[in-house]
């Protein structure tokens, strides 16, 4: 296939985007440095998008940008458009405070890492549901019925969970209760930031299966943010790879897993020898990712990259079309196949491409 280098503002747009993110950038120092560096991406209606990258790569900033919820005093720039089915598009960064409040739970809902910190320890779970419903002027008995169904969908006993205090539940139960809470106002989009990171491997996998069922039953669009590439490969339709606050590769999950075309993505895949292997067996990538105030010129990965050439040191690479809907921000993507061979190629099994769904 011929290489096409795209222009800087090209986006791997989708057919039916429910959210469009254009040139989203976050700064804490008036533009001296960026902790989200001009990212553009579509979220396709009904898809599960996995956002993957090392710790500190800007994944959470991307997630909070979707909801204009970047932690203060960060400044978010760019354009975020939410496109509800059959309704007028909404310019998220233009919303008034109360409009944003309802968008946040009723249209796009977010689950953060560590359910422990999300529940108030002095209130039973039922009160959390009731207060969320009341705060959004929703019918409480109807909402509690929905909560019960959601809890059941998540393989929990509704009555027991609703009547418990957070500390009476295990980490896995709390996390599932939090997912139910985030869906009680029937949002279209669910954004999850490392939702299973604190849980053991078995619980992580089982929550993933449940999420996949929920996605189908409620026709949800999901964003699943994680540093655990194999985990998200089992769930996501598409994957977006972040490095140093930028989006460096995007494509369908199978394409990324089998045909990654950025040396960083390939190193990330190699850092887990087998996609079925537990995270504890990951081999770290040599070198360190840069701090926002210390961004290298050109491609931010060049100090760690075996393929780096002069142009990588001076110019930020645009996306190159690797395949339809698969882009890689690397000048040397073709060489990366030989120069950074994938170590697990023969052991892919059935983990990629959302096959477990
Ligand atoms: N409130 C803040 N003020 C200034 N910088 C911040 C703030 N919160 C995060 N950052 C910086 O923004 C950058 C991106 O952070 P972000 O939390 O998005 O990374 P991440 O990829 O989600 O990491 P992790 O997986 O560890 O959560 C990091 O360099 C971090 O230090």
TrEMBL record:
Transmembrane segments: none annotated. It holds the Pfam family oligo_HPY. It comes from the Archaea. InterPro entries: AAA+_ATPase, ABC_Ni/Peptide_Import, ABC_transporter-like_ATP-bd, ABC_transporter-like_CS, Oligopep_ABC_C, P-loop_NTPase. Keywords: ATP-binding, Cell membrane, Membrane, Nucleotide-binding, Plasmid, Transport. GO terms for molecular function: ATP binding; ATP hydrolysis activity. GO terms for cellular component: plasma membrane. GO terms for biological process: peptide transport. It is a peripheral membrane protein. It is found in: Cell membrane. Its main location: membrane. SUPFAM superfamilies: P-loop containing nucleoside triphosphate hydrolases. Residues 21-269 form the ABC transporter domain. NCBIfam families: oligo_HPY. This is Oligopeptide/dipeptide ABC transporter, ATPase subunit. It comes from Haloterrigena turkmenica (strain ATCC 51198 / DSM 5511 / JCM 9101 / NCIMB 13204 / VKM B-1734 / 4k) (Halococcus turkmenicus). The lineage of its organism: Archaea, Methanobacteriati, Methanobacteriota, Stenosarchaea group, Halobacteria.
